[in-house]
Amino acid sequence: MATVRIPETPPLTEIFQAEVVKRNLDRVRRGMDVIFDRDPPVVGATAKDVVYSKGTLRLYRYRPVTDEVYRIPVVLVMSLISKPYILDLSPGQSLVEYLLREGFDVFMVDWGVPRPEDSRLTLEYYVLESLPRNVEEVQKVTGEQEVSLLGYCMGGLMALMYSGIFHDAPVANLVCAATPVDFEGMGMFRRWSDRRWFDVDRLVDTLGNVPPDLIFRSFEMLRPAERWAAYARLFDNLWNDLWVKNYRLFNRWVYDQIPFPGEAYRQLMKELMWENKLMKGQLALGGRRVDLAAITCPVLNIMAQHDHIAPFAATQPLTSLLGSEDTEDVILKGGHVSLIAGRNAWFRLWPQLSQWLSVRSV
Amino acid sequence: MPDNDDRPDVGQLWRSWLTDTERQWNAFFNDVMGTDSFGRFLGGYMDIYSTFQRLVAQNMERSLSTLNVPSRSDVLELSERLSSLEERLSSIESSINTLAEAVGHPSRPAAVTQLRPRRTRQPRSQPAGAK
Asked: Which region among A83-87, A90-94, A108-112, B90-94 has the lowest average model confidence (pLDDT)?
């Protein structure tokens, strides 16, 4: 005779169970934390000292956590577009912290938040004056001649320009992450900033620095539905402490935009976005040509397959432009941010990066 | 939280729907915003935005000047002078540091100078996991 299975607990009564009630109260509490930004997660917490500063620029040295470090220090070159704490997001989720634990001596070039008077700063200032000065300071502090440069996004572009101009630069290794070189592959950005309708001179002459809101909106327009989908996912995952913490960390960075120095923006648009001069080998700063073929040090090019900010088509040609024989392309699934700071990065990229750097840093 | 019984997982269905919908809307908007007409519209918007900003700035400057109140450009001028003072101080400090180091009395913050780990580390065969 068939037996009828009677549920021990009727589904409706489940909602009155203490555990379920507690979980839903937790959801409400976490939701309130997000809405009112209560107890914001700590970012950029790894211990560091300022080694050199000029204007808004700070060169940091992170305190080594091992008695013995690799001979060649690693210098992280940050982008002008965003804040640098994406590489030192949170304890346990920080590339900087990981590299320190792996035994590297880590420095970071943080350009800071441009002031209105910084609208006059050009790419020449960043590449020909400031970056070499930072490298000199690292040499002084460590007593080592060579450095490894690791540039993220536009930081990678500046590290490339520096290495392509100063052929005797003490760059032992170069790592470029999400670094666009072929601006014909910049997709929507290229279309929106087409010279036929985008008057960059008028914008920069009027505003000086490009306001952070304008930059943020242009990023957001690349994936207009993302924000609303993110809210829905947040609601769905409010029970999950770790998920909410990560959401808040990344969200904080995404919304924490900074102005872009006006003159550098004008150059970026005209020389790179319109003329694609880096790719054609015609880019010159202060009368000195950026010759990527003259870069002969080992180069690691890290790219994301679904990067909507620096698309794969724009980042992929990098190694083919270099004169180096020791080059490697790392292609990961994921986007612009998850490439360097997301789950993919923690489990795949960081160990690979450490391995690549370590054998070339002795 | 995922359930362990045989009931259909409505949550999972909803998540898949959300991902698909997000992808579809993004693709739709990208199609619309990737056209020349949208580029032209955006360019026009930026021109209006710049003109508006310039007019507001000019009028504000004029009004503040009439009221004998410092304007944005006055504050910026002051900020530039402060920056130039900062830079001069920093260059003087740097010269003093160089001199002090030359005579054997380094004046850098102790935290930075005392960090002299041995630079002899050798690579391991496998790097540690990130977590």
From this structure: B90-94
What does the DSSP assignment read for A34-75? HHTT-SPPP-S-S-EEEEEEETTEEEEEEPP-SSB--SS-EE
Cα distance between residue B17 and residue A233, in whole Å: 12
Cβ–Cβ below 8 Å for B53 and A207 = yes
Cα A146 to Cα A71: distance, rounded to the nearest angstrom: 9
**Is there a contact between A69 and B19 if contact means CB atoms under 8 Å apart?**
no
ipTM for the predicted complex:
0.76
Pair A159, A185: CB distance under 8 Å: no
Contact A244, A234 (CB under 8 A): yes
Give the residue on A whose Cα is nearest the Cα of B86.
Answer: A55
With a CB-CB cutoff of 8 Å, which residues 44-83 of chain B face chain A?
44, 46-47, 50-51, 53-54, 57, 76, 79-80, 83
Specify the length of chain B in residues. 131
Per-residue b or e along A215-234, where b marks 16 or more CB atoms closer than 10 Å to that residue's CB: bbebbebbbbbbeebbeebb
Whether the CB-CB separation of B30 and B38 falls below 8 Å is answered with no
Q: State how far the Cα of A74 lies from the Cα of A146, in Å rounded to an integer.
A: 9
Of the candidates A166, A201, A179, A177, the residue with the CA atom closest to the CA atom of residue A274: A201
Provide the strand spans (E) within chain A.
Answer: 48-54, 57-62, 74-77, 106-110, 147-152, 171-177, 284-285, 288-289, 299-304, 327-332
pLDDT tens digits, one per residue of A95-153: 999 999 999 999 999 999 999 989 999 999 999 999 999 999 999 999 999 999 999 99
Q: Which of A110, A153, A176, A182 is catalytic?
A: A153
Q: Which two tokens stand for residue A209?
A: 């620095």
Q: How far apart are CA A118 and CA A328, in angstroms?
A: 36
| B25-71 confidence digits (pLDDT tens) | 999 999 999 999 999 999 999 999 999 999 999 999 999 999 999 98
Structure-token match 């949170």, residue found: A90
Return the residue of B nearest to A233 by Cα: B15
